[in-house]
Amino acid sequence: MPSQPLGTDWPYRHGVTETTNARKIAFATFVRRALDDARALRAWSGTEVSRRTGVSRQTINRWVRGDWASDPEAERVVAFCEGLGLEPAAAFTALGWDRAAGLRTTPTPPAMDPDVEALLRRLVDPNVSDAEKFHIRETIRYLAYRPTLPDVARNRGKQAG
């Protein structure tokens, strides 16, 4: 059986071009790095990233594998980036999209509480032990996800007896 060159007429290419492959690899690398940063800096699991971004784990996993037939939806890419605090323009560049067409202005985030800033600095400080960082993260998780008491229950403790 004669070998065929790997040109566009090669029967096993299924219409995939080198440009498409390069874009898939570039976007997969972008997503992988974003996930690695989320794990390292915020201790977020894949489930947590999915919850925070609104993009399903299955979709994120397909992006990481480069397993998509048509381009990802711009809204999902933007949601993924915004949920992780990343500029969507970086993802658009990896996808080879026109950055000017996909940019939208984002409002300036409100000033962060000084105590929260201090905690974030401790979490990235190499002189802080892993055990202390673990306790900080666990405390933050507890506070972030504990149920809010109804106003009636909160005011009950303030009543004079």
From TrEMBL:
Q: HTH cro/C1-type domain spans which residues?
A: 35-92
Q: Which Gene3D superfamilies match?
A: lambda repressor-like DNA-binding domains (1.10.260.40)
| SUPFAM superfamilies attached to this UniProt entry | lambda repressor-like DNA-binding domains
Origin organism lineage: Bacteria, Bacillati, Actinomycetota, Actinomycetes, Micromonosporales
Source organism of this protein record: Micromonospora marina
Give start-end of the signal peptide: none
GO MF term (any one): DNA binding
Entry protein name: Helix-turn-helix
Source domain of life: Bacteria
